[in-house]
Specification:
five-stranded antiparallel sheet, mainly alpha, 540 residues, two-stranded antiparallel sheet
Length: 540
């Protein structure tokens, strides 16, 4: 269908309004094309009129056009003056797509297309128009996001639309967002009595828009003293509540970091704490577990939701087998010489890093998180906990419980403890110490691989992933008590909480330095850590 180009933007906007007044399906079809063409104008006011006409149309293409305009992806093809989508190419040119039909058009050079400009005011108005359309979306999350977008934009003209939506809305989350919008817009009332009621209701909301409105009321010389006093009191209440919530979130992040440190150190507590081997390749075994997760997701791209359940045993086997190879090839010749195991395993760590660089390249790899680990759990307004860190916290506790049960309730655990306390006596009792050494080292290495799976959900996977945790892992083991699993857990959680409490005041780097200084002084007073071993193991 041929497109008619009207040069006057004001004329085009007038035509659009007339077309909508006439009505009819054909009129709406023409209105979409004409209103898109009307965006080709220098006047921001005319662009707004065209966008408002688009927002009133019942057409699935409208949201894509408005979103592209907001994101700066709507262009004018210079040759035809048509409005098109444009994707920037590496060559500097553009791949054009027809807005009307959605068909790909020809590629043009850098000067072949001109962006339709928008300013901040128009961008806010466009977001409001887009949000107004999304209020009737079947997905409740989309409706909630639309209400919050209107609140953030402060578009009070859409307040009647939100008020009308309240009686028809059934989702609790959207209804809370609508209540928030009502409070925010009520804080602009001229009637003092209604304004005071809105201020009293605002104490239940920690949204930034509420605090902004209250601050304006508090600082306004035109407002009566009772309104300013009420706004001041409401702000004080909100600040106090936010401080309490921030403390809760800080403690949670500290426990989350502590669980990661404990998970990384649990395997090391076996190889170092029980076997006396300073394994500097422990971080690289964690790295192998993270890369195993990456490979598993490459092999099952259509089943990301279940990839972690496959990656966990796979990472345990991969890192465990590599650990067995390290023990058989290097460590078994160095038992009783901890400093030499440090140097030997440091060399192994360099070999593993280079091997990964050669296979996967030095670039970081991104591991996807399943949907059930994405998002956050909103406990209260202004207080939320991310699911991935919550799951990792409980996962670390589960791994700790499983390992503790293994060492305390199984024959392998009994043999490990026997060899640790008195290797010669254990051999005299018929225990094959060589087999115990292999299994214990493989177990510790496998747990390091599991820790790598957890880390892949929090950070990018790269050859240097393990280097950021190896020193912290040793600190946790030494602080908690060498060879004591309970000490490893308590030490990891304690150091994580202390680190997160210090970070806001001292910064991340200084916080780590302060924790290290604390551990140095603590070890000088208690060389055996929080939970020292007892009996023959302590004497050895």
């Amino acid at each position: 269908m041929a497109r008619i180009r009207v040069k006057s933007s004001q004329t085009r906007c007038a035509i659009l309004l007339i077309v909508l007044l006439i009505g009819g399906d054909a009129a709406y079809a023409d209105a979409f094309e004409d209103s898109v063409s009307a965006l080709n104008t220098r006047s921001f006011d005319d662009k707004l009129v065209a966008a408002q006409v688009l927002g009133a149309l019942d057409d699935d293409r409208v949201e894509a056009v408005l979103s592209a305009l907001i994101d700066g992806k709507l262009y004018i093809e210079r040759r035809t003056e048509f409005v098109v989508y444009a994707q920037r190419l590496d060559s500097g040119g553009y791949q054009l797509t027809d807005v009307i039909s959605g068909e790909d058009l020809a590629e043009v050079g850098r000067r072949g297309a001109k962006k339709i400009s928008v300013n901040n005011k128009l961008r806010r108005q466009l977001r409001s128009i887009l949000a107004g359309r999304q209020l009737n979306h079947p997905d409740s999350e989309v409706r909630e996001a639309a209400v919050l977008a209107i609140v953030n934009a402060g578009d009070i003209a859409l307040r009647p639309l939100l008020t009308e939506r309240v009686s028809r809305e059934e989702d609790d989350g959207v209804r809370r967002a609508l209540a928030l919008a009502d409070v925010v817009f009520a804080l602009t009332e001229a009637n003092n009595e209604m304004l005071l009621k809105a201020i009293a209701a605002s104490e239940s909301y920690l949204h930034p828009a509420v605090r902004t409105r209250l601050t304006l009321l508090r600082d306004s010389e035109e407002q009566p003293s009772d309104v300013r006093a009420a706004a001041t009191q409401a702000l004080t209440t909100l600040v106090d509540r936010q401080s309490r919530y921030q403390l809760v979130e800080t403690l949670f992040f500290g426990l989350s970091l502590g669980s990661i440190l404990a998970l990384a150190a649990i395997g090391l507590s076996i190889t170092f704490g029980i076997m006396g081997v300073i394994n500097m390749a422990h971080g690289e075994l964690m790295m192998l577990g993270a890369y195993t997760t990456y490979v598993v997701q490459l092999l099952m791209p259509d089943a990301i939701e279940y990839s972690l359940f496959v990656a966990l045993p796979a990472a345990f086997l991969v890192s465990g087998l590599v650990g067995v190879g390290i023990e058989r090839g290097v460590v078994r010749f160095l038992y009783g010489r901890p400093l030499e195991t440090l140097l030997a395993t440091f060399g192994v760590s360099l070999i593993l890093q280079q091997a990964v660089r050669s296979i996967f390249s030095p670039l970081n790899r991104s591991v996807l998180s399943p949907d059930w680990m994405s998002g956050s759990w909103e406990i209260a307004q202004g207080l939320s906990i991310t699911y991935n860190r919550l799951y990792i916290f409980f996962f670390a506790l589960a791994v700790f419980a499983a390992l503790l049960t293994l060492l305390q309730r199984t024959r392998l655990g009994l043999e490990v403890r026997a060899v640790t306390q008195n290797r010669q006596m254990a051999r005299a009792m018929g225990i094959r110490s060589t087999r115990v050494d292999v299994l214990a080292f493989g177990l510790g290495s496998g747990i390091a691989g599991i820790a790598g799976v957890a880390l892949s959900q929090l950070t990018n996977v790269g050859p240097n992933l393990g280097q950021g945790y190896i020193v912290d892992s040793f600190m946790v083991v030494v602080f908690g008590g060498v060879g004591n699993l309970w000490g490893t857990l308590v030490g990891g959680l304690s150091l994580g909480v202390v680190n997160k409490i210090l970070e806001p005041a001292a910064g991340a780097v200084v916080a780590k330095i302060l924790v290290l200084i604390f551990i140095i002084f603590f070890i000088q007073r208690r060389p055996q850590g929080l939970f020292p071993q007892k009996g023959r193991a302590a004497e050895g």
